[in-house]
Amino acid sequence: QVQLVESGGGLVQAGDSLRLSCAASGRTFSSYVVGWFRQAPGKEREFVAVISRDGGSKDYADSVKGRFTISRDNAKSTVALQMNSLEPEDTAVYYCAARRWIITTLWSDYNYWGQGTQVTVSS
What we know:
About 0% of the residues lie in helices and about 50% in strands. By secondary structure, it is mainly beta. It contains no helices and eleven strands. The strands form two sheets. Strands 2, 4, 5, 6, 9, 10 and 11 form a seven-stranded mixed beta sheet that branches. A four-stranded antiparallel beta sheet has the order 1-3-8-7, with no helix packed on it. A hairpin with a 6-residue loop joins strand 5 (about 45-50) and strand 6.
């Protein structure tokens, strides 16, 4: 089992950057795939980025490719989401989520979730 806590959200202007962090508890963090998802008001939760257990494989939603970068540090049990060139459309609550072994972009496949962190991008 793993517990996740996100941090780093805030209010920024279009074009700015933010770095989200997801801190995990548990001794087997390296056995978990970690994904970032987001949910804007009135919209469904959507995939943002995912990273494999060893960090060797990553995938991104088309809407964030080239702007967002996901990374992980298994020694520190953390996953980061570097978000550059933010747009108002990126405004949402961002969640990190974890599941064992297999990489997937479907939010319903993830067993463990953080509480979320708000990102607001003003135009």
